[in-house]
Amino acid sequence: MIINIRVSDFNLWYGENHALKDINMEIEKNKVTAIIGPSGCGKSTFIRSLNRMNDLVPSCITKGDIFFDGMNIYEKDLDVYVIRKRVGMVFQKPNPFPMSVYDNISYGPRIHGEKNKKKLDKIVEYTLKSAALWDEVNDRLDDPALGLSGGQQQRLCIARTLTVKPDVILFDEPCSALDPISTSKIEDLIRELKERYTIVIVTHNMQQAARISDYTAFFLLGEIIEFGSTLQIFENPNDKRTEDYITGKFG
Amino acid sequence: MRANFKNIKEKLIEDLLFIAAISSIVVILFIFIFLMKEGAFAFLENGVFNFIFGTKWRMETGTYGMAPLIIGSLLVTIGAVGFAIVLGIPSAIFLSELAPPRIGNILKPTVELLNSIPSIVYGFIGVVLLLTSLRDTFDMIDGHSFLAGSILLGVMALPTIITISDDAITAVPKDLREGSMALGATRWQTIRRVVLPSAISGIMASILLAIGRVLGETMAIMLVVGCVARFPSPFFNFFQSGDTMTARIASEMGEAARGSLQYHSLFGIGVLLLIIVTVLNVIADLIRVRIQKKVGRG
Ligand SMILES: Nc1ncnc2c1ncn2[C@@H]1O[C@H](COP(=O)(O)OP(=O)(O)O)[C@@H](O)[C@H]1O
Ligand SMILES: [Mg+2]
Questions:
Q1: Is the ipTM of this complex over 0.90?
Q2: Domain B3-297 adopts which CATH fold?
Q3: From CA B243, how far away is CA A152, in angstroms rounded?
Q4: Which of A41, A235, B21, B275 could form an S-S bond across to A37 if both were Cys, CB 3.0 to 4.6 Å?
């Protein structure tokens, strides 16, 4: 068992609001770890801590460490851009850039210095195939990405994330804006992607967590209440609150 | 009975709105026809070619050629809008992306306030500060020049460019910035490659509005450009004094006898201004349509 990310006594505040409290967690390589919990409990805040996206919030303060691949990503003089490259992120609402499909996908490599058109072409084809989108868009690479359907846009965003060769992909409720068919396509895709990537997914949807994840963490009011194999959490939760949440007593 | 009264009230409101709409259209139409009618004489009496391309505008000899005024307006517009773009767009980027909220909250209203200063006040400041410093710096006779006009009108156009570009940049959704940052892009890469392209139609709009404002400006430019209808040589000589289309209308309108050739020629300038502004608006629309096609949204 290889641990890809280790979270150690991690705390986060937005100003006075203590949003994450003493989080300890180990995220296994090439597995899907699901984060569940009622809204406002800190799920997004937690996964945004894993690639330091919370740096963009001015009032945000952290304490504690998160180790990725052995290095402490909260080290003072660490290159945060390298971390964000290696820990990619897919957002709740599909957010393609207002440019062509091709330019969206080649954006990542281009900002990291790739200029060779042939190489870019290859990356575009490879990542679109990996995101199960190539067959649908290969004849409209120059069309605006915003013309795609919501589900296609979200797969485009997944492909875009793959272009900078991440080890980990964070998903923050990636299906909450999508219809059931698009949702099941993304779920299939996540199952495929875990062969090559470590995946952390926040989801509101209990069945989704049960279907696609290997591990599940239950968050409540900024704390981890329970963390274990998905099977154990759903079949045999240790904590009364976990059980209540899973059985829909609150949420 | 009640329902009937309600119906009559509805009908009355509708009619009033209709009358208001029609009367504003009628007023605009009237101005348009009047301008066209009076201006048409200028093209007929001077000859279309001579009136547009003639390089002399002299009421003493009765020669009216707009070329010096057209080139004057062109120079001042290019200079002023260039100045406003070079200073204004970076300011807008600073205000929307980099300025701490505390500074932004002071700067934004200040910039908006600049917009409401009457242009004659800008003119005064231009005469007192700008002309003297240009005279001393470039060793000019008195500082009256296209350069002075460009700088002054550039300053006046700054608030337009800054506030509208700032709004356009601020309106770019947070999702897009986060999408870029999450790929490991720096703040600056994100601004340059995602935020600015997404805001481009708003930025273009600010530039076109600025062009309109500069082209139409009269009082301030009259005070600093020199008011001599002379064709600059070489034609891009910003250090010479000259005149613009609007300034010429304002300075001669008072003395032009109604119905005279001079009077008609001034209206002719007005017609040309109207045509230019219309063409600019059409271009603005074309640009907007093209951008929408490219990015796939409005
Ligand atoms: N950018 C932010 N600035 C200030 N407070 C925030 C910000 N984002 C989230 N919070 C607060 O942090 C807490 C956790 O929010 P979040 O992580 O978004 O929860 P979840 O994703 O589980 O719904 C909430 O109390 C929320 O109000
Ligand atoms: Mg959330």
A1: yes
A2: MetI-like fold (1.10.3720)
A3: 58
A4: A41
